[in-house]
Amino acid sequence: MYGADPKDKHPMKGFPQICFIQNTVSNPNIIIGDYTYYDDPEDSEDFERNVLYHFPFIGDRLIIGKFCALARGVTFIMNGANHKLDGFSTYPFQIFGNGWERVIPQLEELPYKGNTVIGNDVWIGYEAVIMPGVQVGDGAIVAAKSVVVSDVPPYTIFGGNPAKRIRQRFDDEVIRSLLEIAWWNWEISKITRNLEKIMAADLEALKNCE
Questions:
Q1: Does the bond joining 153 to the residue before it have cis omega, within 30 degrees of 0?
Q2: β partners of residue 19
Q3: Whole-model pTM?
Q4: Is 83 an annotated catalytic residue?
């Protein structure tokens, strides 16, 4: 056995607030990679309650990569939250019926930002909010209580409301190499053999992993 079993809901025995959530999500439009965990002492298995306005008739997907760390209260706002913007009022009269349904908008009239995609090895802090269609790159970090309204480049730290770039974790050349290496796609046996190199900051050592 190499490391934790990705099919184990609670890989830390006696510590149920950590959950590998790919084993608990039932919505086919939420895709979670191996080893991505949600940390929540209240109910770590009910991650889907944090994915809001995710209506099946919209068709957007939430895609989260491998080896991501999601803190308690991380919230994903999906495209179903959007209201029609081009009229004088944004109020959704149509949802209440009784004659108001005559102004129901067509899907193509509603703002649509596409899928929300979180890369691999991403750390999203406590109660961060990710807005519809945002793309968060591999190795990025989102600070606690941030509201992310725009894309986050790989290996970049974002924070605030609205979230902005705080700093890039490594220089451009190192980031290009890390994205090319993509250690998260290695066989788990190779990852296990090379944990020290993955956790360190020696790029040449990481390049020479076997």
A1: no
A2: 38
A3: 0.94
A4: yes
Give the pair of three-digit tokens for residue 156.
Answer: 């970049």
Region 97-114 average pLDDT: 89
Contact assessment for residue 32 and residue 19, using Cβ atoms and an 8 Å cutoff: no
Mean pLDDT of the chain: 95
**Domains of the chain: residue spans and CATH:** 18-169 (2.160.10.10), 172-210 (no CATH)
Which residue type sits at 94? Q
With 90 as the cut, is the pLDDT of residue 73 above it? Answer: yes
Tell me which of 27, 43, 55, 83 is the catalytic residue: 83
What is the per-residue pLDDT across 137-195, written as a single tens digit (0 to 9) for each? 999 999 999 999 999 999 999 999 999 999 999 999 999 999 999 999 999 999 999 99
pLDDT at 1 over 90: no
φ/ψ (deg, to 5) at 110:
-90, 145
Could you tell me whether strands 37-39 and 18-20 are parallel, antiparallel, or unpaired per DSSP bridges? antiparallel
